[in-house]
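Cross-check.
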Amino acid sequence: MTTTGRSWAALTALVVAAGLVVQLLVTAHSSDGFYQENPERVLNVFAYFTIQSNLLLGGTALVLALRPNRNDPVFKTLRLNGVLCIAVTGIVYHAVLARDADFHGWGEVANFLLHTAAPVVGVLGWLLFGPRGLTDWRIVGWSIVFPLLWLVFTLVRGAFVGFYPYPFVDVGAHGYGRVLLNCLLVAVLFLALAAGATALDRRIHRKATVER
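Predicted model, tokenized:
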């Protein structure tokens, strides 16, 4: 990975860190939301797919900035997860959730960093700087595990505590049939992005190898 690529990875990690810190501070000092008291209010932030995808993106970007040659299977899977999940986060938020969003002040800053800035710098960084050759169909298969675990956790936890982080996974409002259908649509988006990313990565990697 080039020096510019490492700098971009560091910038990505910084954007994510800023968004997470602002969001946690806003939540800690807010009176809205499912939980009325801390630390439950702050801890509940980590139940959101947005936060999880930002953590994946920011963590793997930081690793690339510090150790750009890492390419073990675990890192490859987490790297792909970070890029795909942040892309899904940005697409689903702006296509479905943004119309009902009502943020003000620092909450709006956190929302912008986590739902817009992080997806843009994350995906753009992968497109421009890679690193290439970290994605294949086996890694795609492993990358599906995290979203599935998040969904199982969300539905099981929601059944006990009554909290669902997004309207489209709210079983109380829509029932399991509609929620599973909604999740299937998101899964199709995820797999389409994974297939596209894998094909593009191979093409760019093959072209770069030939040009050498």
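The helical segments are 3-28, 40-44, 49-66, 73-97, 106-129, 137-143, 145-161, 171-211. The chain has a mean pLDDT of 92. Passed to J.P. for a second look.
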